[in-house]
Amino acid sequence: MTPAEKHAQVLKSTAKRLGFDFCGIAKAEFLELEAPRLEEWLNRNYQGKMSYLANHFEKRLDPTKLVEGAKTVVSLIYNYFPEKQLPHQPEDIKLAKYAYGADYHDVIRAKLTEFLEILGEEVGDINGRSFVDSAPVMERQWAQRAGLGWTGKNSLLLNREMGSFFFLAELIIDLEATPDTPLAKDYCGTCTACIDACPTDAIVQPEVIDASKCISYLTIELKEAIPNEFAGRMENWVFGCDICQDVCPWNRFSRPHQETAFQPNAELSHFTNREWVEMTEETFKRVFDKSAVKRTKFSGIKRNVDVLILKKPSS
């Protein structure tokens, strides 16, 4: 076994030990094919008000600009599919599944810190950084290169064994490891379920999202008034949106996660529209104390609730 093969084995065994569902390895190199795609996406202003996505263009494409001497990008999958969805009827206010429990940034970041510590013990001194949706890393593209899946028409990474209800995380390290083989096939075929189901027409073409139309963007990233054209088309999603995943045939393979931190807050489990409408800032802080929902702040959630209930733009 070569050193690179041994390192790959250590990476995958460590990932399994820490509860990651899949671990894929790719050579750290410039994402040449992605450069024109990213540039065109930005030029079309599909990022909406997320101006930060236009920053660090080179870093997004070249991992060696994030970690000096980087040789390997390790992509990791961590399941968040719940055993039970929060109960709701079509008229009920809904929350994206990934936000049911504790903030995934905190949960996974702790695991990645431990991952790097274990690597140091197993293979000696290495230089590396961990990422979980927190830096200019094109995580889906790296995961695809690492053989973990393919890009669906909704732009999400799809995995044949578990669909798409999972988080992606990365390690960029200066350790050489044998790379995995990317999938050579797109398994979406002629299916257009996600495109057909999107109520705001955010999927402008296969694999391309106009984020400024996406319900997740409107309820989380947009800090100003929700445009009038979307006020009546949000299908009661107050934070995030699962529509394009819920209709995806590959998510019939989703299985419940084993992460206790992702279990929903007991109080949240019994929220009705009345609780959402009458929620005070004190209740918001208590219920969402460790949740990703805190990103919107109380004012953001109240804006979203008002839009959903009144079906008119925020002011």
Through-space gap between termini = 64 Å
- Number of E strands: 10
Poorly predicted segments: none
Proportion of helical residues: 25-40%
Average pLDDT: 94
- Helix and strand run: HEHHEEHEHEEEHEEHHEHHHH
Tell me the Rg in angstroms: 20 Å
By DSSP (H or I, 4+ residues per run), the number of helices equals: 12
Q: Choose one word for the global shape.
A: globular
> What is the number of independent domains?
1
Q: What oligomerization state is this entry in?
A: single chain
With strands numbered from the N-terminus, the spatial order across the biggest sheet is 1-2-7-4
Major sheet, described briefly?
A: 4 strands, antiparallel
Share of β-strand residues: 5-15%
Helix-and-strand structural type: alpha+beta
Task: Itemize the secondary structure elements and their pairings.
Elements: H1 3-17, E1 22-27, H2 34-43, H3 57-61, E2 72-79, E3 94-95, H4 104-123, E4 128-131, H5 139-145, E5 150-151, E6 157-158, E7 166-173, H6 193-197, E8 203-205, E9 208-209, H7 215-221, H8 228-231, E10 237-239, H9 243-246, H10 273-278, H11 281-287, H12 297-310
Parallel strand pairs: 3-10
Antiparallel strand pairs: 1-2, 2-7, 4-7, 5-6, 8-9
Helix pairs in contact: 1-4
